[in-house]
Amino acid sequence: MQFALLIYHSPEEFAMRKNDYDDPHLGAWRAYYKALVEAGVYVGADALEVPETGTTVRLKEGKRRVQDGPYADTKEQLAGFIILELPSVDAALEWAARCPGASIGAVEVRPLAPEAKRRGFTG
Amino acid sequence: MNGINQEDTRRTIERVARESYGRLVAYLSVHTHDLASAEDALSDALVSALNHWPQDGVPKNPEAWLLTAARRSLIDVIRHQRVVQASEPTLVLLKENSTEAALSTEFPDERLKLLFACAHPAIDPAMHTPLMLQTVLGLDAVRIAQAFLIAPKTMGQRLFRAKTKIRSGGIPFEIPQERDLPERLDAVLEAVYAAFGIGWDDMAGADQRGRDLAEEAMWLARVLSQLMPGEAEVRGLLALMLHCEARRSARRGPNGRYIPLSEQDPKQWSLPLIEEAERHLGEAFTQGRSGRFQLEAAIQSVHAERARSGRTDWAAIALFYEGLIRISPTLGTRAGYAAVVAEANGPEAGLAVLESIDPDAVSHYQPYWAVRAHLLQRLGKTRQASDAYDRAIGLAEDPAVRRFLIEKRG
Fold first, then answer.
1. What is the tens place of the pLDDT at every residue in B186-239?
2. Are B39 and B162 in contact (CB under 8 A)?
3. Residue closest to B322 by CA, chosen among B337, B312, B342, B332
4. Chain B neighbors of A27, CB-CB under 8 A
């Protein structure tokens, strides 16, 4: 069963990303990915650029509406995602708790919809 | 004045609820096996107390008042359910008992039977602790879910299913026969220990599920030791918890920095708690039946000796660990043993203990990687140590432990 860990960052945590390679904060993330791969649960992951780089598009009554910035106007913004292959949601919550993002921002655990895979929406 | 009284009354209700909750739920459910109804009835009674006591004053025997109110509510609930067949004997029983309890302030303490029902082998072991916390201590599903890292709704559903099984699955409310007692008691102790959740914390291992419930677990262990004063393992468990509790404030330095046991300042340990632990452990040893919790407490007792002698007798600790591995060769015990062997006989010997553990079993067991990293570092195998540190860091949940390991990796 596949789960997405959706990682939400506060503005402060987005700011920390600018630090250099030896930064302990980055070290924690590298170690976390290593642990995921070595435990054989890692399917894929990616990080998103900072929210200010986002542009939101909508079509309303046939007209394009374009808005600067991310869709949701909240303090914590989606910063990246990790897809994991795990036996249960219990295991997914365990990995979410270990995620360095959980102690500063938040990590949402969401199962991938099985029908999306059948219809070929993903991978 | 009135405000102060109300505040006092509210606090009295909280105290009575905490002290009496399990006794009342146990007494109300021991014949019906219907925990959910007993809990509902008791919460009705508590609401009623909040409404009446501030005006009428706190009754002379608050527990008896709550019992009478809860019993009345329970009769209503059972009538409402209209499960005539099943509830008829229950109603008779409740009525028979009610006059007697109204006269007497004493009623039997049935919590032990309730604890054995919660940890019955027919109930999913993962639910033993949540059930105890809810039925004996009155914690709500949200709080329990947080400690066990389960979605609150899921925890609620699992508790509901477990209670249904207790009600309808023929699970007895009784103290097991002599023959079954050791095994059944072990399940109860295991569940209490799971709530305490210290795991093994020497080398920045973090196996701390349920760690927020330490106080509740101590409460349960004290209740158990009052109810079963002759059981050595009950005292062993209590001693173990007291020893660990004694070090609570020494575990964190300035800025919440994690401090492993070996670097803790014994002056910060609580002497009264250590002394209480030693009393229980001594008492347990005189009963002449060894067991897992006594051995674990003995290990902590040797560590506590450092407060007096200034040194740690690693050979003695290793000996207790060997006994522990014979009884309960868990991953935590074996990782802990490896660290102790390394202290007693050098890092190679410790590493050899780790090598004997199945690698598949430790792919996401954090304490194993923390010990391994530490030992490899001591052997000067920098690259391998750094790899192992990464695994330990990646698997750590506590940010303080993570920071500590990142610093040690260098």
1. 999 999 998 887 655 555 655 555 566 888 889 899 999 998 988 999 999 999
2. no
3. B337
4. 393, 406, 409
Contact assignment for B393 to A32 by CB distance below 8 Å = yes
Q: Tell me, what's the ipTM?
A: 0.79
In a domain, A63, yes or no: no
- pLDDT at residue A20 greater than cutoff 80: no
CATH number for position A109? 3.30.70.1060
Distance, in Å, from the CA atom of B368 to the CA atom of B333, rounded to the nearest integer, reads: 10
Report yes or no on whether pTM surpasses 0.95: no
Instruction: Please give the tally of structural domains in chain B.
Output: 3
Whether residue B141 is contained in a domain is answered as: yes
What is the mean pLDDT of the segment spanning B28-45? Answer: 92
Same domain, B197 and B138: no
Please, are residues A10 and A104 in contact by the beta-carbon 8 Å criterion? yes
B117 neighbors B173 (Cβ within 8 angstroms): yes
In angstroms, what is the C-alpha Rg of chain A? 16
What's residue A62's pLDDT?
87
- Strands A63-68 and A55-60, by their bridges, are antiparallel
Q: With an 8 Å Cβ cutoff, is B364 touching chain A?
A: yes
